[in-house]
C-alpha cells in the first residue's frame, strides 16, 4: 500500500499568505501530477488548523515580534505571525490543489497551548493526531512525504513517520517541498537522512509508476 502525504499545502504558506514559504506555490503542480500519475493507493494531506490566539503566535506574547524565539509548553518555540487560523482563507488548502484526489485530511495544531509541526503528533510528543493509526489500519507500507515547509513541518512529519510506523519505507520528495531558510533546510535534510528517510524526486516516482 503506497501513500503520498502532502504537508500543509495551504494558502497561508504560499505567496500572499500570512506565513509564506518562498516558492511555496511551485509545488502544487508537482503534487497534482504525483496524485494523478505516481501510482499511489492513498493520498493524505495535513492542514494546519490553529485557533485564534494560538500560543505559537507572536501576537499572543505581548512585546514579542514574529520570528523571535520563545517557549511554549516547555519547548523552544519560534513565535510565528498569526497564520492558518481555522475557518479562514489563510488556512484553506491551495485552490489549485486537486482536492478530489485526496482521500483524507489530517488537521493539526488545534491545541492553543502547544504547536504541531508534525502531522503525527504535537511538538511536546504527548498528544497524537491519529494519523499513524489511520495509516496502520490501511496497511501502508510505503510513504512519500513532501510539502511546506521542509525545515519545519515536513522534517518533523518524516522523522515521526519513521518512528511511529515501523517497517514502513519513508521517503522525502525533495522537489515537492520548499523551505524557509537554506541553512535550516540543509540541517533538516541531514536530520531526515540520519533518521533513515531516503530522498527522491518526483521524476523518480513517476518513472517507478511507469515501470521504467
TrEMBL record:
<keyword id="KW-0662">Pyridine nucleotide biosynthesis</keyword>
<dbReference type="GO" id="GO:0008936">
    <property type="term" value="F:nicotinamidase activity"/>
</dbReference>
<keyword id="KW-0479">Metal-binding</keyword>
<comment type="similarity">
    <text>Belongs to the isochorismatase family.</text>
</comment>
<keyword id="KW-0378">Hydrolase</keyword>
<protein>
    <recommendedName>
        <fullName>nicotinamidase</fullName>
        <ecNumber>3.5.1.19</ecNumber>
    </recommendedName>
</protein>
<feature type="domain" description="Isochorismatase-like">
    <location>
        <begin position="3"/>
        <end position="200"/>
    </location>
</feature>
<comment type="pathway">
    <text>Cofactor biosynthesis; nicotinate biosynthesis; nicotinate from nicotinamide: step 1/1.</text>
</comment>
<dbReference type="InterPro" id="IPR000868">
    <property type="entry name" value="Isochorismatase-like_dom"/>
</dbReference>
<dbReference type="Pfam" id="PF00857">
    <property type="entry name" value="Isochorismatase"/>
</dbReference>
<dbReference type="InterPro" id="IPR036380">
    <property type="entry name" value="Isochorismatase-like_sf"/>
</dbReference>
<dbReference type="InterPro" id="IPR052347">
    <property type="entry name" value="Isochorismatase_Nicotinamidase"/>
</dbReference>
Amino acid at each position: 500500500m503506497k501513500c503520498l502525504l502532502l504537508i500543509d499545502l495551504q494558502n497561508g504558506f504560499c505567496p500572499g499568505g500570512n506565513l509564506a514559504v518562498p516558492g511555496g506555490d511551485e509545488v502544487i503542480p508537482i503534487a497534482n501530477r504525483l496524485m494523478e500519475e505516481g501510482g499511489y493507493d492513498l493520498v493524505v494531506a495535513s492542514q494546519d488548523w490553529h485557533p485564534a490566539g494560538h500560543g505559537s503566535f507572536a501576537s499572543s506574547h505581548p512585546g514579542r515580534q514574529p520570528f523571535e524565539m520563545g517557549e511554549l509548553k516547555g519547548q523552544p518555540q519560534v513565535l510565528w505571525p498569526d497564520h492558518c487560523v481555522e475557518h479562514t482563507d489563510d488556512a484553506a488548502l491551495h485552490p489549485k490543489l486537486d482536492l478530489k484526489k485526496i482521500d483524507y485530511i489530517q488537521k493539526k495544531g488545534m491545541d492553543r497551548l502547544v504547536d504541531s509541526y508534525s502531522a503525527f503528533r504535537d511538538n511536546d510528543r504527548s498528544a497524537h493526531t491519529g494519523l499513524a493509526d489511520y495509516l496502520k489500519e490501511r496497511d501502508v507500507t510505503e510513504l512519500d512525504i513532501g510539502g511546506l515547509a521542509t525545515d519545519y513541518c515536513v522534517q518533523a512529519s518524516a522523522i515521526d513517520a519513521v518512528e511511529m510506523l515501523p517497517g514502513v519505507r519513508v521517503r522525502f520528495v525533495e522537489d515537492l517541498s520548499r523551505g524557509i531558510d537554506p541553512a535550516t533546510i540543509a540541517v533538516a535534510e541531514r536530520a531526515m537522512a540520519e533518521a533513515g528517510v531516503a530522498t527522491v524526486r518526483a521524476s523518480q516516482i513517476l518513472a517507478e509508476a511507469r515501470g521504467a
